[in-house]
Structure formats: C-alpha cells, structure tokens
Protein 1
Amino acid sequence: TTMGLTEKEILADALESEKQATGYYNMFSNECVHNNVRDAILKCLDEEHEIQKSVFDEMHARGYYPTPAADSTKVDQVKQKFAQCVK
C-alpha cells in the first residue's frame, strides 16, 4: 500500500478524479466564446475520457468495479433511444 491506501482505493480515487475532470472540461467547453479555445478544451475532454476509460477498465479487470451483464432487450432499447438523438 501507498501511505495506507490500498490499490483499490488509489484506483477509485483516480476514477473519481477523472469523472470530475470530464465534468469541468465539459462545462468549460460550453462556456467558451472563441472556437480555438473551445477546440482545445474539447481535445482535453476527449483525452480525459480516454484516461477515465483506462482506469475503469483496469478496475474492472481487477474485480474492483464489477458490472452485471445487461439484458439484451434493454441494451437494444437504449441503442434505439440514442440512435434517434443522433439523427
């Protein structure tokens, strides 16, 4: 452990930090007046999402963040719902 923290606690803290960072970058991008600044913030947002996904994947692989299998009917319903948003 590092300073009394378990591996799971360290990864959970990293995941929470990434979730907060993506929230802030999203908020900042919504408030940008200049397109070049907005584009830079959106690039950072995308990078933070990639980091968050990596941390989540690591936690999941180690059994620290188990997720139940989703019902295929519910998955299809969600896909249809969000497919309409993209149109």
Protein 2
Amino acid sequence: MSSGQEVLVAASTLLELTEDCFRRLGLSADDASTVADVLIDANLRGISSHGFQRVPTYAQRVRLGLAGGSDQMSVVASFGSLCQLNAGRGLGPTAAVKAMDKAVSLAGEFGVGLVALGGSTHFGPAGYYARRAASRGLIGMVMTNAPKTMAPYGASERFLGTDPLAIAIPLVRHDHFVLDIATSVVARGKIIQAAQVGEPIPLGLAIDSQGRPTTDAEAALSGSVLPFAGPKGSGLALAIGMLSSVLANADFDDELASMYEDFDRPQNVGQLFLAIDPWRICDRDASLERCDAVIDRLGGLARAEGYETVQYPGEPEAALADERRLKGVPINTAELAAFADMCVEYGFDDLAAVVRPLIEQEDIGL
C-alpha cells in the first residue's frame, strides 16, 4: 500500500500500542498512559500532526536518554500562587499534566495558580492541558515555546518557534470552549505530515532556505514557516517565547535543541500553565449560564454563504472526537509503517506484528 493512503484504526488500539511502547522504553505505567492519552486525543480531535505520528520521535529521544518519565520532576521555586517546576527531562505530556494539576491546586487555594515548567520537551496540543482545567470548572491558559522553525515578520531565516497559546473556558450545556492556536499560519507538524506522504503544501505557509515562497513540503522544512497575520503572529510568538523561557528558566526558541535534528543534547522547553477560579468573584451558576447563552446566540447567527453552522473553538473537535471513538481514527499508512519499523528496530516484534495488518486495510479515501 503506497504512502498517502489512510485507514481506520480503533482509538483503543492506538492507545494500547502507544502505551505499551513507552512502558517497554522504561516509563512508568502512569506516565506511559499519559503520553498515549495526550497523543491519541490529538488524533481523535483532528490534530493528527500532534498525535500518533510523534511516537517514533518521542521514543527515539527516550531511548537515547534525552527524555523520560516524570520521576525526576522537582520544585525549583514557589511563592503563594506562583510555582516554578523543572521536568527533569520528562516527556512533555508527563510533566505538563502534573504542572497543570499543580496550577489547579494553587487556584483552589489562592483563586489563581501559575506554574512555569522548565526542562521539558514537546508536549503535544496545548489545548489538552487547558481543557484539563476547564473540566474541573476553571479557566485554563497554556503556552509553550518551541525550537526555532519560524521566520519573524520581515526576516528570511528562523528565529521563533510556532509557540502556541490555548485558552479553555468551562461550559455546561455545550462542550468546553477551547481555543488552541499556533502562532504560525499552520502548525509545522502538518508540513511534516505532508513531507512524510509526499504531498505539496499551499502557498503562503512557508519559505525555503533562501527565503522564497514554496509549496514543496521538504523545502519548507529546510526553510521556515511563516507567522499568521504577519506582525501580529510574529509579535505573539515573541511574547510567548520570552515569557515561557524566562519564567521557566528554559532556553529561548533560537537556543532550543530541535526534537527532530539535535540528538546530542536534551531539550529545555519552557511552558506556562495558568488556572483561574473565577467563582471567587462571580456567581458560578449565573456566570456559566451567561457563557452558554453566548454560545447559543453565536450558533443562531445567520450563516455566511457556504457555511452550514457557526461554530466556536472546541466545538468541531469535540464532535469529531465523539465520532472517531465510535467509527475509528483515520491514520496514514506511512505513520503506521514508521511505527512498525521502529518496533522492529527496538525488538518489539510483537507490536510490529499488530500494526502490519492495519497497514493492509482498504484505503478509506480521505
């Protein structure tokens, strides 16, 4: 089966494969489960660039001793509602879940909790952690810096990461509001996916190593992605990069080791987790009803030509996750093959044997 085809795989199968892989690499059962949940949740919600395809790279860094579980996390400093943690090279998902839970705990005590996490790695979709706060009835905000892959506005070379921002607001009658955006026109992971399956990318997403616009995914990966809205996305990325690196005592974007290219040193990514308990100053029931009412009014607006619905951030992702839990998750066969090849290399032949038949399924034509 050629690259670029997609097949349906049960979410439970992807979870089991991913969790088993990381347990065999030495992570605790809890940490392996966390990594699997974060990555496959991304696939469920249509953020496949941050999902299962990341497993081989995460695994390689663990195998080389450049990343691991959360057992080496430590408190660096704390003051009231503020806390700085160090992940101790823990894989981003394992450390980030604990960091957000700490922010939630601080919010329970002080009304607001801010946790800065240094010594971390790529943690998947930022929205996962913001949504974790919303599921506890709190407002969540998450941001992270990332290795340089983006040219700032006016530049032709990399300096900034695609530093994302996520904001989650709890709702009652609707799925939680979850805004999760990269500061680039598109997440670099989508370009990686396009390169992996040999597909072109739309013009305007990236420039090549000479600073020229390109539709070639491989050339884009050698060059730079572009910030959304020009100076706005560029400025937001710079702000996130500075706050994440300074408050977490982490490397700035242009100092960070690349997850895909630098296997001679660990990453030192900086991440911020903010949890707010708004019910300290607002009536909970009345405020939640007002938020739901806003969503109701939004959904009732007249549709623009070509649109069937007016949706809010988090709504399409939640609906897609429900659908994919029932019908299966579309996975590119190239990603499955990469996972199987990794398993063979690491001696996990039984896992590879599970994956090989999945690759031979009928293409679902996506």
